[in-house]
Amino acid sequence: MKTLHQSPLDPAFVQNPYPFYETARAQGTFFHWAEYNMACTGNAAAVNAIFRDRRMGREAPAELAPKIPDHLKPFYAVEAHSMLELEPPRHARLRGLVLRAFTSRRIAALLPEIETLTHQLIDGFPAGPFDLLAHFGQKLPVIIIARLLGVPEDMSGDLLKWSNAMVGMYMAAPADPIARRAREDRAIAATEAFVAFMRQYVEARRQDPRDDLITSLIAAEEAGEKLTTDELITTCILLLNAGHEATVHTIGNGVKTLLETDHTVTPENANTCVEEILRFDPALHMFTRWAYEDVEVMGHTFHRGDQVALLLAAANRDPATWENPDQFQPNRPPKPHVSFGAGLHFCVGAPLARLELQAALTILFQRLPKLRLTEAPVYGDVYHFHGLTKLMVQ
Ligand code: HEM
User: Is pTM, for the whole model, over 0.90?
Assistant: First the structure.
């Protein structure tokens, strides 16, 4: 396995990681990324195989569970109940409860609301150049997930703020220890505020059942051993965080690409175009897995305790799977990309995200056919998240 050096904090890499991915993929199925000290792959077949291999998972093997420093304990206390960080059987129980409440009927029923909200947001756009991410991309997914869960919409500002601070924990740490600690402190403060809000809100909602996800989760909790209060709170936080963060940036990256390549989303191409947006420039680039036993993947043997990083955005441009992968083709016949993962942890919110993206982008381009960029968009310096700092348009 070749060793490659690439700082995830290097501005040129953050703005355009694709040349590095291509170099890395050309070295073989796996390479050793020195800065992460980890085996990595951007090979589509390997990424798919590892996502689906039950001998590998997200939860660290017990003997290797990282020691959590005291100041970070509140964050990891929440993570300890997150389905995203767990393997069976706890994962199956928590995911099953969410899926039961997250029915396709409930998702499909959101379409008229998504459409109305999209129109309302567009009606409120300023006349001059404005930031589409702030006025549109950030607003829509957070309001929709708040409604689906049954959290007051006027909390959206706080939810956005808490969630932004919490996801800082997954980003490449700044080299400066003071900046790193400041980011950690922000994440912990946000976690504590989020948990305190959810705890009192769930208590209040016990007496006030409605047709929303919190009510279904409270019912599961009250039915007995199925869901503890802490699991209920973490599940709500996970859904609220995961439920908008990536969708916000997929809207941003998608509109950027569409405007740069002179394409639009129409009712006819909405399906293929959104899949191509998800493939071409995804919002989340790296997910890791631990090996629980010896596992051979495409010629490399992982041993118990080895970690491997899956580079989703690189896999989505693997020429072995995709023809002209660096070209954005809104009518490309869809086939599975890995932007929502695959296997056991496949994104629970994929149907909702797809519905939001298809509806919102179609209406945006129907209402504003002359939309154009007024500034070159810049990606945030926060690998492995790949989203714009703002998207100035007119
Ligand atoms: C474009 C938008 C989205 C993208 C790109 C995305 C991406 C992903 C990915 C890659 C994973 C798998 C992580 C892994 O295997 O390690 C995942 C899991 C998850 N996503 Fe999403 N997601 C999006 C939207 C949403 C939405 C709207 C929701 C909720 C309403 C959501 C909730 C979740 C949850 C709960 C999991 C954990 C599933 C599990 O562990 O079984 N996501 N997402």
Answer: yes
